[in-house]
Write a sequence for this structure.
């Protein structure tokens, strides 16, 4: 366990982080290292496993309490077996505290989790790829995902059809047994997982063939989701109840759908605004012109003024992305890009020279300003 990183460090949160902060950090890290985004990358795969291991502990209040007090040893299922505990082979951290203080809850009353109590299923993740236009206008998409569900053949009991699980006689269905052992402090009573039922409280003589006695199977499913207009790359949509099914009648977890937006050939998104480059000819820039500009809503006509300079920007109000879950839209900004003609023939070159001779400093404001600054710095 010495080579394991601190779980809080793995998720990038402080030790006193709230449940929401831990969940948010987990989602961010899980997305960053998800195997679907890094196919064949063993490093990312190991990071993903490390993130999930950290979240499994820190999202469970009981495990987190043990981890905060004893580090990785406190959540190691083998701790206390084979010399890990100074009190003997079958003790664990919880057993020691139960012996002296009544459990982690303090003096006189620690609580053990009931193996038959309903438990919520885990959340799962999926990704859907949409186009730039779909992110602007909204769409419906079918998401394919795999989750863990209750086995149809045994209805979650884990027992073969026509049979049923029996209450463990060794522990009376509690999943825990009490053991008395001698220690340096005298006879100590400890509790540990029942060996007969492995802490489940029930014994299955004839396991279900479909789920091998687990009561749960993996299934590939599809769900249609509504993607709202204005959603951006990397945002997550929550689909309630489509995660892994609960245990012992507990509710299902949720499906978190990560949105991936394909880049556009012409547009760039900045917040809810849209930017694009508009190439124009020298003549259009000099004389002014009516140009056709692409927008998210189609083509629009826009008059550019006489003497437009390279890099000038004009705004089309309300032509950007809709504000997500709000009113109004962003704007579109169009940057002028003056294209200089190439491969001129002799007639064209002569025409340019004639025009250049007809022009003077009054026609080149920026050039004249630059020469004035140059003269002020270096003289004639």
């Amino acid at each position: 366990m010495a080579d394991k990183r601190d779980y809080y460090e793995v998720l990038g949160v402080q030790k006193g982080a709230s449940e929401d902060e831990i969940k948010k950090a987990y989602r961010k890290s899980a997305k960053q290292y998800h195997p679907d985004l890094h196919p064949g990358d063993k490093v990312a795969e190991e990071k993903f496993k490390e993130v999930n291991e950290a979240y499994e502990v820190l999202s469970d209040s009981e495990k987190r309490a043990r981890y905060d007090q004893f580090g990785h040893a406190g959540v190691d299922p083998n701790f206390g077996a084979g010399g890990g505990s100074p009190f003997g082979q079958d003790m664990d951290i919880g057993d020691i505290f139960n012996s002296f203080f009544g459990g982690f809850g303090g003096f006189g009353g620690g609580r053990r989790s009931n193996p038959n109590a309903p438990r919520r299923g885990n959340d799962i993740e999926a990704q859907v790829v949409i186009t730039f236009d779909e992110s602007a206008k909204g769409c419906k998409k079918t998401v394919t995902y795999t989750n863990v569900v209750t086995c149809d053949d045994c209805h979650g009991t884990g027992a073969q059809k026509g049979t049923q699980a029996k209450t463990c006689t060794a522990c009376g269905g509690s999943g825990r047994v009490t053991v008395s052992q001698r220690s340096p402090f005298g006879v100590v009573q400890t509790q540990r997982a029942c060996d007969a039922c492995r802490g489940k409280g029930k014994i299955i003589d004839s396991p279900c063939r479909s789920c091998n006695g687990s009561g749960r199977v993996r299934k590939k499913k599809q769900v249609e989701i509504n993607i709202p207009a204005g959603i951006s790359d990397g945002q997550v949509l929550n689909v309630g109840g489509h995660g892994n099914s609960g245990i012992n009648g507990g509710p299902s977890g949720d499906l978190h759908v990560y949105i991936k937006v394909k880049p556009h050939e012409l547009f760039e998104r900045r917040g809810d605004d849209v930017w694009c480059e508009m190439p124009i000819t020298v003549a259009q820039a000099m004389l002014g012109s009516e140009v056709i500009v692409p927008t998210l809503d189609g083509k629009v006509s826009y008059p550019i003024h006489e003497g437009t300079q390279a890099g000038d920007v004009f705004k089309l109000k309300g032509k950007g992305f809709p504000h997500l879950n709000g009113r109004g839209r962003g704007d579109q900004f169009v940057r002028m890009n003056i294209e200089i003609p190439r491969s001129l023939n002799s007639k064209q070159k002569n025409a340019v020279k004639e025009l250049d001779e007809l022009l003077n400093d009054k026609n080149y404001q920026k050039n004249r300003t630059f020469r004035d600054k140059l003269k002020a710095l270096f003289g004639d």
Notes: The two ends are 76 Å apart (CA to CA).
